[in-house]
Design goal:
Blueprint (H helix, E strand, L loop, with lengths): L1 E5 L6 H10 L3 E6 L12 E5 L5 H8 L4 E4 L9 H16 L3 E5 L13 H11 L1 H15 L4 E7 L1 E3 L8 E2 L11 E3 H10 L9 E6 L1
Parallel strand pairs: 1-2, 1-4, 2-3, 4-5, 5-6, 6-10, 7-9
Antiparallel strand pairs: 8-10
Helix pairs in contact: 1-6, 2-3, 3-5, 4-5
């Protein structure tokens, strides 16, 4: 497939780009600085642009079969929601339907899956702006009318891909590690290109 990855130079986005190329996809990496994409591959194109500028996003979406959003801004807010809105608007204008968006475990109705530390310390204090930004981001996606899937991973680790994790679980489940490797997140995200189990749904993800 022809896919564009927004957030291609982020910690998860890099894994998505690498793995998508290994799977034979034609990948467009959208990055604020093209030089940040150090990988070279005959099926990889790089577009330098700002996701906060609607015109930049519109050009990147043209001609794609699917769009993957893995935007991050550390502790900061607005990039995820505003950038995702620009992506959704561009997809509608360009006639692209399949959208896969990385959100976070704890967003929307998945908040009960978090423990006290993540609810009160991390998302309640340290990462509060970032967490708050995921709420409107998800609302934009679910109201888009597109063929969307939300992926809600728990805290990232740098471990290898295991392909052994819980997904699609109810937020009331107990005994989760509340961790998952970036490599496993990337693998799950890419699986959604052909597996429509979570079409129009959010998938919670954790070890």
């Amino acid at each position: 497939m022809k896919i564009v990855v927004f957030g291609a130079t982020g910690t998860v986005g890099r894994h998505i780009v690498d793995r998508a190329l290994l799977q034979g996809h034609e990948v467009t990496a959208f990055a604020r600085k093209a030089a940040a994409v150090t990988l070279s591959h005959p099926r990889l194109s790089v577009i330098e642009g700002d996701v906060m500028l609607a015109g930049d996003v519109l050009c990147a979406v043209a001609g794609q079969d699917a769009v993957i959003v893995a935007l991050g801004a550390g502790r900061n807010g607005t990039v995820r929601s505003v950038g995702t809105k620009h992506v959704v608007d561009a997809m509608k204008r360009q006639g692209v339907q399949r959208l896969i968006v990385q959100s976070t475990l704890g967003a929307g109705d998945s908040r009960p899956a978090l423990n006290f530390f993540w609810k009160r310390i991390m998302f309640g204090l340290l990462l509060r702006p970032a967490y708050a930004d995921h709420q409107p981001q998800e609302e934009i996606v679910t109201a888009s009318g597109l063929e969307w899937t939300l992926v809600r991973p728990s805290a990232f680790t740098d471990g290898p891909a295991t392909n052994k994790y819980h997904h699609g679980f109810a937020p009331t489940i107990k005994g989760l590690a509340l961790k998952i490797s970036r490599a496993d997140v990337a693998g799950f995200v890419l699986r959604q290109l052909t597996d429509l189990t979570y079409l129009g749904r959010a998938a919670n993800l954790s070890y």
